[in-house]
User: What shape does this take?
Amino acid sequence: MNTFLAFKRELKEIPIATSWMLNDIAEMKGRQQLFIQQSPQKLKVLRENAIIESAVSSNRIEGVMVADKRIGTVIFGHNNLKDRNEEEIRGYRQALDMIHVQSAELTVNENLILKLHQLSRGDIWDAGKFKEKDGDIIETYPDGRQRVRFKTVSAADAPDFLSKLLDMYKYMTRDKIIPPLIALAAFNLDFLCIHPFRDGNGRVSRLLLLLELYQHGFEAGRFVSIEKAIENTKSQYYETLELSSRNWHEGKHDPWPYINYLLFIIKDVYKKFEERVESIKSPRGAKTELVLSTINSIPGTFSLRELESKCPGISRDTIRAVLKQQRLQGNFVCQGRGAGARWGKNNKGNIY
Assistant: This one.
């Protein structure tokens, strides 16, 4: 809310670095349909991989994790789940399903936000409910010391602040007061500063970011995980969020560090989307190509276990078959035995 109020009062110009990123993303958006029209089988593999990475990464940012061998069962299985962590990860996947399928029909409002929170928090007692007690964002140092990183909006005021934020977002996007990418980044910042839930605010903010991108025609997040890109730059995420939330309550904050960070993430996702679609050559099979593309991105040697973690939507048998064939063709050498053996490219360089 306070970011939108500041923009409404005075937004004389957009920083040059921000303008450059907006232009780059606009060019990539213009090319996205050409990539999407390519082989549906290629995109199916990328989409499945993105769902897995999104559900796992968004939760892992908040310290919610499951064993690698359980990921496929938790994301796509129908078996009973073992613990709260697995419930939250599957719930996040269900929220992603709703956004991917219904994005055009969904309205960003209070009911939807509560629904996304309910799904992503599983069966916990306050899932889908606003926080009942005040709670600041606390940072704990390795030596046990703590500090208040940010003082959030009080529990009593949070619903009203969120309602005003939703009204401002609707006004800013409907009347095109500011570019849509800046509007959704500003919404994301204000949502996190309001902090309407006891827990799960970060995960809901990322689901809303994905939905708002889809609703403004930015589709790359369907095929490359935005949540994974944020997890890979987690220190920058927290650093820019802290910089942009200083003096937020007084409306004297600087929103551009966090806005520029999110624009960087969106641009990076588009870049990876184009690279992955171009690297998958359908004659060899989409999953095989994704494994080979992943291997080419790994510097030095790697183990089967490490390669599996980078290809979460692909079975170990498929990965083993690819490695075996490449070894027979003389493209790889293997040192050691079993899952811990180190694989590496031979002197030919890349496997293509």
